[in-house]
Amino acid sequence: MLKQKKRDEHNAIIDKDDGIIVVKWVDNNDEHNAIIDKDDGIIVVKWVDNNVVTAASTCHGIHPIATVKRFSRTEKKIIHVSRPSIIMNYNQFMGGTDILDENVSNYRISVRRQKWWWPIFTWLLDVSVVSAWIVYRQFAPTYISA
Q1: Which residues contact 68 (CB under 8 A, 6 or more apart)?
Q2: Which Pfam families match (predicted)?
Q3: Are 83 and 66 in contact (CB under 8 A)?
Q4: Cβ pair 110, 118 in contact under 8 A
Q5: How far apart are CA 68 and CA 63, in angstroms?
Q6: What is the mean pLDDT of the chain?
Q7: How wide is the angle at C-alpha 120 spanned by C-alphas 115 and 121, nearest 5°?
Q8: What are the pLDDT digits (tens) for 93-121?
Q9: What is the pLDDT of residue 2?
Q10: Mind giving me the DSSP string for 46-86?
């Protein structure tokens, strides 16, 4: 295997194998990791916030790395932590999935059956009904107002 190690502009260590790139950087004594598969275009990032956060994507990367403020319990003050772009994009657009999950849990079909496929079928039905209701609410005022 071909191995190359170098540092980028954020002082991150880049370790290149034949098909995988491993990026490691340290910020405020916390180590962050990213693994990039060049063949499939998948990036997996492990980032330490208050807890460990792991995210995977095929369209977002780690650059640009932004700085965010977090309260450190050990130092008892606000510190600056670097945040990869993939985490920023997840935080920006996560609301739709959370709303869908909340609505599905509130309006769940609760019929018990012995078949293994029944929970999958009812979940698909629940998600379809909730999604249709969201689309109806979005476009109904334009059609009903006439």
Answers
A1: 80, 81, 83
A2: DDE_Tnp_1_7
A3: yes
A4: no
A5: 14
A6: 76
A7: 85
A8: 877 777 888 888 888 887 777 888 888 89
A9: 41
A10: EEESSSEEEEEESS--SPSPEEEEEEETTTTEEEEEEE-HH
Rounded to whole angstroms, the Cα distance separating 82 from 89 reads: 14
120 phi and psi angles, rounded to 5 deg: -65, -45
Structure tokens at 136: 């109806």
- Nearest CA to 36 out of 10, 9, 11, 18 is that of 18
For strand 66-72 and strand 52-57, is the pairing parallel, antiparallel, or unpaired?
unpaired
CB atoms < 10 A from the CB of 105, how many? 10
**Per-residue pLDDT tens digits for 122-135:** 889 999 999 898 88
- Residue 24, classed as helix, strand or coil, is strand
Structure-token pair, residue 53:
């956060």
Is the bond leading into 64 cis (omega within 30 degrees of zero)? yes
Strand partners, 82: 67
Distance CA 29, CA 21 (A): 22
